[in-house]
## 1
Amino acid sequence: MSQLRKDLISGRWVIIASERSKRPDDFRGAGEARTETADSFCPFCAGNESKTPPEVYALRREGTQPDQDGWSVRVVPNKFPALDRGEKTQRRQEGIFESMSGVGVHEVVIETPDHGLELSDVPLPHLRDVLETVRSRIISIEQEKQYQYVQVFKNKGRAAGASLSHPHSQIIATPIIPKRIKEELYSAERLFKKYQGCIFCRIIGQEMGLRQRIVYSDRHFCVLAPFASRFPFEMQVFPLRHSAHLADMTPEETESLAATLKSVLSKIKGLLSDPPYNLVLHQAPNPSLVQGDWPGMSKDYHWHMEIMPVLARVAGFELGTGFYINPVPPEAAAGFLLG
Amino acid sequence: MSQLRKDLISGRWVIIASERSKRPDDFRGAGEARTETADSFCPFCAGNESKTPPEVYALRREGTQPDQDGWSVRVVPNKFPALDRGEKTQRRQEGIFESMSGVGVHEVVIETPDHGLELSDVPLPHLRDVLETVRSRIISIEQEKQYQYVQVFKNKGRAAGASLSHPHSQIIATPIIPKRIKEELYSAERLFKKYQGCIFCRIIGQEMGLRQRIVYSDRHFCVLAPFASRFPFEMQVFPLRHSAHLADMTPEETESLAATLKSVLSKIKGLLSDPPYNLVLHQAPNPSLVQGDWPGMSKDYHWHMEIMPVLARVAGFELGTGFYINPVPPEAAAGFLLG
């Protein structure tokens, strides 16, 4: 089983994924570029259902059987999970260091049976189905009441960390709250007091008024290039209605989010030559766990997504100290994406 | 001039480097991989001194002139600086957002006149000269009393962010303290109180006793694979003597650091197929500025370097929420590097 380890100085948690760990010989030549060949065999394609662990959820044509063909969206446990379901996790002290067993959930959302159809290319109703599937899995995992936080993310392209090219997202549920989310929660609480209201709502209001960094907006969502963007063409997707959890979305809002994502993902694909990207959900911790020690989650926090293209020609970078250099002002990025 | 912008929620500062900014057409095709050809012309090579801004420091053979051949280590302002020297920086409010003009220093340390000679390959006395040069620049920039923090880092290889392959490091001095350093300072202060002593000294003591994660040690330095390593083969280089600033090093310690770096950089080059890497100095803020609002810097903090190889075959990655997955336990990494 994997291990969760806490960095004493930064408070950051790391999964040491021993299940994925390599033998010494795997390290030799580790610096060499991977050959970028097409996947010769894809376990996520229709017809290969037996090559994944048994599905935990799927949208299927009536009359079809689990782990058979006939699905449109399919969720399976990760075959090489970073974390595993198991006994309630216990903290362990190793000298001054803290660790715990790697108890958690690691699932893969296979977004379409069609290997070549990207999330930006699927029809809107299908994209809505993907979002409904993610929503359904979040609700189900949170009801297990063992995991403080459900992380949802999508790595597209090898340079963004994807090891398989078939369109998919990942869900990782952890017994602790990630560092950046914790910081955002505390910060949101502090800024709520300062501004007498949700700081995210306030930012959205200011940006919608200024219109300098807005990339997209409709009745329920807006997409903006953040004022202090770390990376060129970084984007944040916000629901206009204040809400701390993606799972709170109404069916109408889910439709709207599908249209929003289709629009911005198509734009970065078309205008930036189909770059690799990371998409990350930021939401409040598991609401089914009572956590007296966390800032008032639903009042202060506002869920959103971050989209970060990985761009070779205009890369921004981190100096290694939490300080970023970005060569593309967000106003220029928004202007370019608006066309 | 560039702009420094603060992210309201995270407190993170970003340099929006407009001097480096691109025209809209530069964005098209931004996702395409850069062609990895050898540099056809290198402004850092001996003989091309006129192609860089005038040098601010150099170690030269007696009788040679500035900006001529005859140097062994040379420091020049970055031709495309992220920050520029200028008027004292002023904070500006844009609605609820905070920014300031991009006043700062951005220099390049050209580590050798020889394009093909890496830092791990230069003779020990030369490596010591590079370190003495960095030390000298830090002291000089800190005496300007305008910059709260001096960042020193090395990106080797395109995948690590280097745009030129000639061996070089960079120095960026900023009017503010980077987020991660700030966090480390506060954390070090808090943990000093808890453990009645420097937490870094305590970690070094525990690790030197255990010997499970020590990659190298001599009379003055040790290198360890951190307990909660984010990346495979991540390393931290610590002086054994408690000190908050690299510039405090004695000549004997500088010799020792040169030998330490040569050992570990040669190891990752030889054993991991010459991977790209990032090397980052972590030290306390500028001691020549009196900063009443910062935790007792020299008592609590302990300077160190982080070395992060960029490894294609065993990549660790971040989930986008400050949570990392690392497939190589640091004990395995240390064992492998010890051979």
## 2
Amino acid sequence: MALKDLRAVPRNEEGIAAVCGILKQRFGERFHLSGSVREQHGHTTTYIPNQIPDGVVFPESVGEVQDIVRACSEFRVPIIPFGTGTSLEGHVNAPGGGISVDTSRMNRILGVNSEDLDCVVEPGVTREQLNTHLRDSGLFFPIDPGANASLGGMAATRASGTNAVRYGTMRENVLALTAVMPDGRAISTASRARKSSAGYDLTRLLVGSEGTLGLITSLTLRLAGIPQAISGGVCAFPSVEAACKAVIMTIQMGIPVARIELVNQLQMKAMIAYSKLNYPESPCLFVEFHGSESGVAEQAETFGEIASEVGGGPFLWTSVAEERNELWKARHNAYWAAQSLRPGSKALSTDVCVPISRLAQCIAETEEDIKRSGLIAPIVGHVGDGNFHVLVLMNPDDFKEIEEAEEFVGRLNERAISMEGTCTGEHGIGQGKIAYLRRELGEAVDFMLSLKAVIDPHNIMNPGKIF
Amino acid sequence: MALKDLRAVPRNEEGIAAVCGILKQRFGERFHLSGSVREQHGHTTTYIPNQIPDGVVFPESVGEVQDIVRACSEFRVPIIPFGTGTSLEGHVNAPGGGISVDTSRMNRILGVNSEDLDCVVEPGVTREQLNTHLRDSGLFFPIDPGANASLGGMAATRASGTNAVRYGTMRENVLALTAVMPDGRAISTASRARKSSAGYDLTRLLVGSEGTLGLITSLTLRLAGIPQAISGGVCAFPSVEAACKAVIMTIQMGIPVARIELVNQLQMKAMIAYSKLNYPESPCLFVEFHGSESGVAEQAETFGEIASEVGGGPFLWTSVAEERNELWKARHNAYWAAQSLRPGSKALSTDVCVPISRLAQCIAETEEDIKRSGLIAPIVGHVGDGNFHVLVLMNPDDFKEIEEAEEFVGRLNERAISMEGTCTGEHGIGQGKIAYLRRELGEAVDFMLSLKAVIDPHNIMNPGKIF
């Protein structure tokens, strides 16, 4: 886990000094050397210690990104791409120092093609900014990882979230990218066509590359039509197993569920207290359907029948927007609710993903493990995809607790991998999961390393991450 | 185009002789040197001349594939992966000779996980074989490129077809692969989890790599539930433009159309004659909806209203299986119907894909071009994705005609690329479209070449294709 496996990246003091000089001259006030700005940009949203960059630069165009990359390339200085800093596995840390490239000023929406259901955006555009912009077009961008992350960062970490069961992840929703590569060249990975068989899929190679192969400078994204109607509700189940059974039946029946979120008993307890909910303290599914008025009613009714068949229910649902928003606000605040279970603690948020047929067993064994370990660690999950999160609440100053949490995460990853799953469904490898990538994919990692070496021969793009 | 751009690959006579000796000893009767078998395996489904391999081997296991690759790697001999030989851009040709690896004996279905809606198959399993096997499970594999292709070949060319508008292409439906890489190592690219953020997306790198990076030895595929009900029908339109408008409106309204196929006037004429259809000789859309009984009826009714709004219709639809099958049989036989427009001719089947907003213009300009050129070239298209095919009917012995066809294809590719589209939506680059890859993606191709060079340093995997 993280602390043990943070890869050391040697510092290149001379190169860093040279690049800082060049960037100061080139970018003036848009290049920052102050401690507070640097501190912010090496900030991790988890317990992994901050490793701050030597400077932070705010480019506004592809040409400026090229200038930065060329300078860093010439002097072999690390480049750490930065979106909003909400990643959970230490992606924005600077283990060997270097330059944090903050894309927040590259936040223009370059075009919306409503007939094609796509748009072109700069990497610093956030999910909420895009959806606000789209509101009157009848379209929306469906990927919702919870945080108001930048779209460039979401692509880089192959993010997904609650809607992925219906709309896919960033893997499916990025049609094309432009990127500045480690040698300073700007490339375009694909056309705006919906599909293509023209050459290697560089789009999908960059999506999920965590800033280690190039810096994304624009994204062509698929959009979806805002559904005519939405219904949603919460349903309690006697056990996680019963809830998982309901999920499998829902998907097997082809009900196009838009979100289906599991909240385990401990997490429900936290949310009930935090959001003042009037729900039972047992495992629940938060469910949402998108479609026509009659369609979402039919889907909700059918789901209710499935739930009662496995001993759950009643399924209380609504298609009134305000009531639904209240519901999802509670789900979105799950992180804060969980932290309130142990005030003053810091949460280690980890995620794994398994085939859905193994999900109930994987969660049951994990709950058992948590109990044995004496950890406080609620569970929430995007269970339509077999993906779930454990929030381990730790005293960040207690080394023994951190060690126990790391060992727990290690067992969780092993468990997921042994069930034909993955050590990360949507957070990425970053610094935190390096040890498990090879455990999961074996010699395939050698080929990833070859790709990294040939595209970034001086290892300047986000070094110390993934490998 | 093809004839001009067939890349020369130098022959390595000594290496070929050595490998043929090794494979004869190792595989006995499963290694073929006879002219007829070799001829079959260098067969292209288009007018590109055959370039036959020196030997054809039929492995039955991953270990056997590794033995073949190791021998070819040691002696620097080309390996040409072969599925069913239905590719359209010369993928199975052996421009520098070498060994054709026929996967037809690796045709076992290794597992169906119905709760997970996935299956694991060997590369020689064909689409129809898989769907026959799945029939009783209530599941099906939705990608349908027309031909009964092998699933390994479909992955290698990033195939799609009529259902892609609803179910995606091979890009979206291959969850994981195992492959033997050019150095003989067998790797597994991903787990069976629905989604993952663990490392680079080697799955998507191999999908669409046309056998140039590794030989696929198994595939984990997403499956879909067989819809409870299917409705479908044919609708005539006064113009291609009106038909395209109806397609855009259908998709914008969020109607989850499963297939929406354009047939232009000339192709309708051919199909009416060939399949004895009672339809008008004007541009038509062949449409299919998947869902619940009431859902597919509602969708068909709504589509009918859209059609009449743009001056098309009436939309005659049915949910009776026999009637629908008759309809789609005519669409599936489009290739043969087209050839009957000029008996004795050979068809050059090409495909491009553009953003759907540009589709009407792209097809109109293409029809105009065909008229001016004096070619006989009907058009069919998977227009929900903006993808369409032109079948140029040529006298394969008339060099001037071939040249004219090549020039036409060149203009078509340029037109698609200039409209933010791609020179191939689903056929691949192969030998036929090498010149257009760089025109479309510029310097990105240099990075593809770097990936190729680092993974396959001796250029033994399907040389002379893509680049």
## 3
Amino acid sequence: MKNKPLILVTNDDGITAPGIRTLIEIMNEIGTVVVVAPDSPQSAMGHAITINSTLYCDPIKITDGPQEEYSCSGTPADCVKLAVNELLDRKPDLCVSGINHGSNSSINVIYSGTMSAAMEAAIEGIPSIGFSLLDFSWNADFNPIRKYVKKITEQALLNGIPKDVVLNVNFPKRKEDEIKGIKVCRQAKANWVEEFDKRKNPMGRDYYWLTGNFINEDNGEDTDEWALSQGYISIVPTQFDLTAHHSIQQLNTWSL
Amino acid sequence: MKNKPLILVTNDDGITAPGIRTLIEIMNEIGTVVVVAPDSPQSAMGHAITINSTLYCDPIKITDGPQEEYSCSGTPADCVKLAVNELLDRKPDLCVSGINHGSNSSINVIYSGTMSAAMEAAIEGIPSIGFSLLDFSWNADFNPIRKYVKKITEQALLNGIPKDVVLNVNFPKRKEDEIKGIKVCRQAKANWVEEFDKRKNPMGRDYYWLTGNFINEDNGEDTDEWALSQGYISIVPTQFDLTAHHSIQQLNTWSL
């Protein structure tokens, strides 16, 4: 790439989150950065889009730097659609989403606003990466992973991401010198077992809070969960063709 | 199955939608039905879940019949989580979601609340089917597809749905005698090209409405789009392992 790449930055924790501010700083070292991110936290929004309501999207400047920034009232996927189809003059060379405060490994990819933004970009033909750190705290320390975010992004620009594939990158919560390296993995087969905390509101009406435990029964050493537990960064190539091709033959034996 | 199967019914158009009322009637002919559905329309919610807010879920009765019904303030995925982990005494034998007013074929599966509910059930180990009719109208005519919904459901109960697979069933908008049959398909590679309608609100602030055109450049005759265009019902086996296994080898050639 002769000129500086155009990089779209978004997330789901909202435009003021420390994770996206870190990501903007790193991307400013690599390319021309345009930020289009939600004006409020949108975690666990999955691939929601706004079709029955209006969207606001305003230029803003949260921190110093050469980046252009827009704050948007919609979901992460809305932000990408607005950026690509309304705000940017040309298709970006790369979309990066995150750095998410919290894991998007294994089944979390399904619920993740961070990954849905990255996936939306990939659907629109833009090479795309979602970054997540296994630390839910607003004050999470992103410094140990800066050099890895930069390295993975540079390798993606150099090699090209395979067509119709999005990278789901998760970082263990470790000191820089305790991170063992990077593993390309498959999505572990794990899931949440929910428990609902049932309470009464001040008017006496029952309501519920979702809580749950993460259960991983997948012992494979080629999974993202395994890599992260061992101190590696996991990269799962992720796709939006959801067809279970292997089961088509079996379904064709049904009497339909 | 010796006893009547326990069938969980949900949707994304809301508990009063004609599509789910039709689905409840059909399921009442097959099993013991419990309905847990959103109290308001939740289209295009993707796989959103409610983690930072409360959920209400109340017993209700919309139409006559033996079914038990609950109206829930959350997303389609929330409804399934609440049903399985809080409301039902045992894991249901089947979850059916829909009948959606509008298509969930090809890339629409990613944005679909109907399919996210079905997928949530599958993640929790419950055989699961999403049904959608290619008619966005609230007054869509579901009568031509009743016998097919019943047939597919009965076949699923008889044969068992392959593990970790959800069926994404779409019906063409046709008269009953013009429906040509059922095809097991792959998800077509198609996408939406968005256009935003930019307007000014009464206070003079810019806002946007999302609109778009559906573009299918996949000419394969094994796709859901092809089947539907020819008057067939499409069944796409759909999975929640999003790993692009075929690209792992290529990513392992990167200098990471």
## 4
Amino acid sequence: MILRMPSRHLVILVVVALVAVERLFGAGQEPAGQTPGTLVIAGGTVITMDAGRRVLSPGAVATSGPDIVAIGPPDEIARAYPQARTIHAAGRVVLPGLINTHTHAPMVMYRGLADDLALKDWLEQYIFPAEAKTVAPAFVRTGTRLAALEMIKSGTTTFADMYYFEEEIARVTRRAGLRGVLGETIIGFPSPDAKTPAEALQRAAAFIKEFSGDSLITPAVAPHSMYLLEKEALLAARDLAIGNRVPLLIHLAETEGEVETSRRKHHASPVQFLESIGFWAPTTIAAHGVWVDDDDIATLAGRDVGVSHNPESNMKLASGTAPVPRYLAAGVAVGLGTDGAASNNDLDMFEAMRQAAFVHKLVSRDPRAMPAAAALEMATIGGARVLGMAGRIGSLEPGKRADLIVVRMDAVRQTPLYDPISHLVYVTRGDDVETTVVNGRVLMEGRRVTTLDEPAVLKEAQEMAEEVRKAVRR
Amino acid sequence: MILRMPSRHLVILVVVALVAVERLFGAGQEPAGQTPGTLVIAGGTVITMDAGRRVLSPGAVATSGPDIVAIGPPDEIARAYPQARTIHAAGRVVLPGLINTHTHAPMVMYRGLADDLALKDWLEQYIFPAEAKTVAPAFVRTGTRLAALEMIKSGTTTFADMYYFEEEIARVTRRAGLRGVLGETIIGFPSPDAKTPAEALQRAAAFIKEFSGDSLITPAVAPHSMYLLEKEALLAARDLAIGNRVPLLIHLAETEGEVETSRRKHHASPVQFLESIGFWAPTTIAAHGVWVDDDDIATLAGRDVGVSHNPESNMKLASGTAPVPRYLAAGVAVGLGTDGAASNNDLDMFEAMRQAAFVHKLVSRDPRAMPAAAALEMATIGGARVLGMAGRIGSLEPGKRADLIVVRMDAVRQTPLYDPISHLVYVTRGDDVETTVVNGRVLMEGRRVTTLDEPAVLKEAQEMAEEVRKAVRR
């Protein structure tokens, strides 16, 4: 489109737009990419989630640039890093930042738009029409800013995502300072950003190139599912992932209907169909994994496929319950995810932990089935394993990236305190997170987010919601 | 015990004690029992939960003394009550105070003490020893103050309770300004407050007498369960309830083990055994009701027994899931409860709503099984029906008591807002409650509780927790 506007007006417009964008990202924060200095988080109970599951109470964590450089008693760390900026965490719990292994960030724009419907009605009457009419780069940016704000405020430091215009999600994520494994979606029908799987694969290739080597963004390929893609597109997505050494993300065995469709069409379960075509990449992340049998679990274990368990979404959509204790027994890496906020309806990983601890007790009829520590493990080091990043994140250890959170433990509902791990899972909420650090950079301190302008992000989202309302009005 | 202390020291001690008690209950609040003046809650979305499920947006509620006197458009109410003190609720949601139909308030002192154990180990190694060594009047007062603080801060205005030293719970509850249906426990073994069921029944009779006619406290009788009491004690408890026209509270069909025991001993399910002995009173509140068949449901419906559904506790202890949709279809009144905080681990009724909405979708494999509105109904007017108080509380209507809460709706996780009822159930937490009013009295405004001194209550609980730690140390 050629603009016929007088150039003076155009200049003013551009300036206004730039100022608006600057506002959304907050004032006074350090620029994205700047190397953070030395930081010490001192005092508090440090839950490391390292191999020995060491808990230091009190403990301290020292970071330098993007890395953790030391963990130890507070006085020792203070002596070793006398010049460091210090965040005091006495009475708090310090733990690895939470890892959300499956979401669709911009779908926060659809949270609560429609609930409690049969899956078909929910999708066909609300989600698909809303997506067809609203998903565009500006929408994705607005939604991702809102999602990033929610994640930073609730202690998520890394998230895995599958959506459209993933390059927009990546740009916003990088600027917000979060770590992301972000997969451009390949899907078997015309989507908002690609008419065909081939076009989507081209977009994915360009996206991978743009973010190759980024310190925060791991680009990825996200073929939607085995039921919305043909074999050729699934294998092309795999080849793209393997050729570029990036993760491969897919929805897998989410509903019983998916299994029925697969058996009818391929005479195999979804897992066995993917096995038969040689779908797997070195890092494959399967979201949901609800409807699997022992053979499927053995296959996923043998192929080192990680599973993202999404207990809230699976309950809300009545999909079922992934057999997590059996996955863990078979050696499958399992992380937790929230799924998109349209089916949850938030991105709070504390709720995901609580729900995981609850639901496996219920379905196994054994209160020992999923202890609090196991839920916390899935939300931290387990999630890191799923994403193929256990060498870099998921626990507090010298040499790993400085992704950590400080959580308050003094609410009425957290009193008294006998066991911090029990409290993290059973009575703590995202709102209790006080400080969020990613890659050594402080994204939130004292509940104030430094990389996004909260009021501006909320206002922008409220305005965008008007478009969503129009899209589903009948 | 005779005190040999010099009288001067004794006087000082008494003064110090009185000051300490005063401190726990906060300074500057209106004395308990004082008639509140006229109050208007203006602006905001008023969700009445009346028979027509009227929602006024914006709306206003006027109260006079303990009663709601008018509900209507804000300008109309402002004209009618120009002198009233006004609480502004623009952008908020105003709804009936939440009703917790089953808890054991002082057990907040055991939250997170032990989790994720087989029921027998949890009870025998932790809860029973802790109760045997710590439950005493001072412990019950401390625990109830902590529980009352948590309930006020999370929007619960009425709770039903079963514990020991229930008169202490009642005194603290009245002073904190909450409404309670409080049942003195009758149990078949020596308990902290009674050696025998007969002694417990005497205590219950005295308790009922003390609180007869109280505007906030409804005294009740709480025979623990059909498996921990003989027929004679169950019927004596029933007679006490009927003779004094007070509610009868009991745990019923919570675990499969209870049903097996009942069938072995009585050749009948727990419900049919109670039916066979004519146990029911005009207001009977059965907690849990997980393991029931169609005959049991028909019996409960026919006897007007209300069921308290405790989804979180039933999941955490792996008890099972009450067949709530079938209860509702049969016309049984169903409310929500948290159970004691030892098995939850909090008293947040928003979490109870969310869990109810989630778990019934999962177990019925139908996302339509428990819509958000149905969960909200159980937490308000449904709970009022269970307690036999639907004429007084559970909805916002002129003539009912002024028990209401104002809830913020502007958190990041609540943005955007398409449907306030969806948000109340799926993304709201107790911490979002800004104002709590019971019987026309403001118990919390702007998150500041007026009837309890929060720091003093927390300190007292932390000190008491030391006794709990000692009690379970091995």
